[in-house]
Amino acid sequence: MKKTLIAFAAALSVSGAAFAQTGFYIGAEAGAASVKDQAQDLANGLVNELGGSAAVTQDTGIGFARFFGGYQINKYVAAELGYLNSGEATANFSGVTGGAATYTGNVKLSVSGFDLSAVVKPFDQPGLDRLFFRAGLTSYEQKIVVSASSNGSAASGTSTDSGTGTILGVGYDLPAGPGVVRFQLNTLQRIGGLSDNNSTALSAGYLWKF
Hints:
The structure is a single chain. By secondary structure, the protein is mainly beta. The protein has a single domain, classed as Porin, CATH 2.40.160. Helix content is about 15%, strand content about 65%. It contains two helices and ten strands, in the order αβαβββββββββ. Strands 1-3-4-6-7-8-9-10 form an eight-stranded antiparallel beta barrel. The chain is elongated. The two termini are about 35 Å apart. The relative contact order is 0.18. Mean pLDDT is about 90; it is low at about 5-20.
């Protein structure tokens, strides 16, 4: 009888562990991403259009928040859907036109949209089993708002680009309290569907399993 009870308890323990490795989870994270330095391109464009001279300074980083949910299919693979919303990266410009008129302005860039990816934990060894790799697709919109003023007159305009891209990354899950602290580094390609619009993003967050 004692051996039977021990075997039964062991079986429950194994079943519980297996169950804990599957199921839904939700989470949130915050981080920073690189922004392509286009200050010189913007200055050249202003000079080509207006003549004279122009000077531009630009942020090369942007903050973001991401909310996500997923399903742990088994101990190795999860499917995850996320929504990202960034702050604004700003480029400030000023110059003098070929007609000697002075002007100032700024360009503000932001990104938002969804991503769908597979999160893979290929290792069984303690410690390494918390390491994961990410691969998936993004559907992001990049929004650019331009504001400028010259001699008391002001103008503004907005443009958007949207399309699919890819996300590849690596991260580490660290158990903490009732959930998991997650650290990750991702590379984003073709943001907004633009072939030369790429970024590297570093983030930290927390997820809950249920």
